[in-house]
Amino acid sequence: MNRRTVGRQPKYQRIAADLKAAIAAGTYTPGQRIPGENDLMATYEVARMTARQALATLRSEGLIEARKGAGIFVRQYEVVIRRRGVQRLSLNLWAQGKSVWSADIDDRSLEVDSVSVMEEPAPKGVAATLDTPAEAPVCVRRRRFLLDGRPVLFATSYLDAELVAGTAITQPDTGPGGIYARLDEIGHKPVHFREEIRSRMPNAEETAGLGLTPGTPVTLICRTAFAEDGRAVEVNDMVLDSSAYVLEYEFDA
Amino acid sequence: MNRRTVGRQPKYQRIAADLKAAIAAGTYTPGQRIPGENDLMATYEVARMTARQALATLRSEGLIEARKGAGIFVRQYEVVIRRRGVQRLSLNLWAQGKSVWSADIDDRSLEVDSVSVMEEPAPKGVAATLDTPAEAPVCVRRRRFLLDGRPVLFATSYLDAELVAGTAITQPDTGPGGIYARLDEIGHKPVHFREEIRSRMPNAEETAGLGLTPGTPVTLICRTAFAEDGRAVEVNDMVLDSSAYVLEYEFDA
DNA sequence: AAGTGGTCTAGACCACCAC
DNA sequence: TGGTGGTCTAGACCACTTT
């Protein structure tokens, strides 16, 4: 019980602080292996669970990554997708302004992985937004998007089932121009958008489906598309791997 | 060693799944106390660390909250701030469209807690954006914002030190209209904005400063303000308690 | 085959909170 | 004062990766 030697700080926090400092100082570089459980047990003379807790701290901050049977590695954030919320002003003055956060890849180079279309009752808030009856089924389109084979985004669209009945929107392949082109054809062209952004820790399903490293939150985008008459014609609920995305919005004062 | 009885699933995951199901089913409601370590040890006949790990799973998903000496409680997300990225179009058609995510409080009802102004070298990306020499000191303004006494936001502004020298921007109190009014007065009125949004787990400093419950990520907003001539005049780096915020952006097709 | 992280046990002492 | 969660120990077996 040499617990009174250190000034009230738990051992695992001291070990974690040491490792963090070493990573910050560049002693260990991204992708490199760092001391694992057995190493920490030896050098700090602690039990396995204590070493694990120190590593758990770093993992929860997204600094390291454990690979079963291989070791602990400094995490590297490489591919970043820049998602431009307002992308239509392509050739304006501001487009040349330097951005603080670099992003290698554009939103458009994603591939669709799987599509499902079905009719389900809409979630509470969605039904209110679409102005459909509370328990009535709506058209639900679920898609997953990949970047270089790695899943980075889940998207779920909700549309008024009566409105889109008989259109390609109820088919897996919506045809050229996608949902919005089809909505235009039936006289409900989206002309205005609202995006609501939140962030939280993923549940087990999201962690598995997006292949998330523990310690990675998800970013949620809920986009509502409005037609000319002000009617909400689509709600698109997106779940993003937050380590893969930078969202960008530009607007004038 | 009754490990082969269950089909490959770790005990702690099964316990966690049970608790999650109970919370989802409404057996335990937000703010209510749920079975703690000792209860789980007894009912599932497991060791303390196993029960803890089950609870750690729920905590990392932001579902529960541990209060030392008191017990484990279902987390409740109450106050949400709606931060409107583009708020100037106050009386347009879309303002009446129903939003999916409710938000009780507006961005403006925040109080400033502490302000510090100093000259420091700018971070790498910031210097490039502001177009200042790499190691040159810039004006750095740090502020913390409270909602009902609870910290919810850190904001750090970076400005060209030479540009703002002699203005109230270098003072803790920037006067009526704040930084942007002062920039206007010296002929660099911000007329265009870019906001870049990311999300990650907080470090220890952010967790303490924002009073974050474990399992809560932070949302990062990096706003760049541009003057008429296209010059970037301010970079504002914000760290938000993600459980307190919904970000909103509206724009036309 | 050796080493790694993942899971699990059966204990222990502590600081903190509610009663 | 008794119960709670937080920290810690000294073992153990397992699945997995690497060599």
Automatic annotation (TrEMBL), chains A, B:
InterPro entries registered for this protein in UniProt: Bact_HTH_transcr_reg (IPR050679), Chorismate_lyase_/UTRA_dom_sf (IPR028978), Tscrpt_reg_HTH_GntR (IPR000524), UTRA (IPR011663), WH-like_DNA-bd_sf (IPR036388), WH_DNA-bd_sf (IPR036390)
Keyword Cell cycle: no
UniProt KW keywords: DNA-binding, Transcription, Transcription regulation
HTH gntR-type domain mapped to chain residues: 9-77
Domain of life: Bacteria
Classification via Pfam families: GntR, UTRA
PANTHER family recorded: GNTR-FAMILY TRANSCRIPTIONAL REGULATOR, MANNOSYL-D-GLYCERATE TRANSPORT/METABOLISM SYSTEM REPRESSOR MNGR-RELATED
Protein name, entry field: GntR family transcriptional regulator
